Amino acid sequence: PFLCETCGKRFPKKDNLTRHVKNHSPIKPFVCDCCGMTFRKKGNLIAHCTVHNNVKPFACELCDKKFRVKGQLTRHHLVHTQEKPFMCEVCNQRYADKSTLKSHLFTHTELKPHVCDVCQERFAKRRTLRLHYYCHTGRPHPCEFCDKKFQSTSHLKRHLLTHTREKPFVCEVCDKRFAQRCSYRAHFYRMHTNERRHYCDICNKSFTERGNLKKHYAVHFK
């Protein structure tokens, strides 16, 4: 088997390992021209771009809702079934979303595959590493409309949507619109699933919203 030196995951083929290794890279070369979101894979960008048009080819057979991508329809089905198919093998806690389970699993392991290339401090989550980088780089991209600053131009572009009042992200359950994808996802899981899916990889405290987790991290990164 082929071993990922970053996280220890094994793959039967070298091609699978090559694709997997890209997940550990902070580089996201594919940028959405509409909202500034960035992606590692071109396919993810293409799927995202459907957010900015009105084509909804995926219909729910249980109600009259339609969706732009198949993944949204899959998540929507959980509203009808209340199913939580992803179970933690350690504590048997169940989740509706695979990514939530993956975040939860870090509470049971000491594995910290993401390393700061400046000071060599290690983190369980890539997101925590990005927050840590602020200690070294600051936030060089200021908003021209308010006093906020951002680490990257893509983050700045997403923030600018809050000033232009454009809301390209639509909840597939209640049709509420959001300027940022993170706000939409926070709304979906808080209002329609109530899962505490955001975990602090330092103290294991959990939150329903990523914004609350970010505020909490200030306790550790003073």
Automatic annotation (TrEMBL):
Domain of life of the native organism: Eukaryota
Keywords linked to the UniProt accession: DNA-binding, Metal-binding, Nucleus, Repeat, Transcription, Transcription regulation, Zinc, Zinc-finger
Cellular localization per UniProt: Nucleus
One MF term in the entry's GO annotations: zinc ion binding
Domain C2H2-type: 2-29, 30-57, 58-85, 86-113, 114-141, 141-168, 169-197, 198-222
UniProt cross-references to InterPro entries, sorted A to Z: C2H2-ZF_Transcription_Reg, Znf_C2H2_sf, Znf_C2H2_type
GO (cellular component) term, any one: nucleus
Name of the protein: C2H2-type domain-containing protein
Organism: Parasteatoda tepidariorum
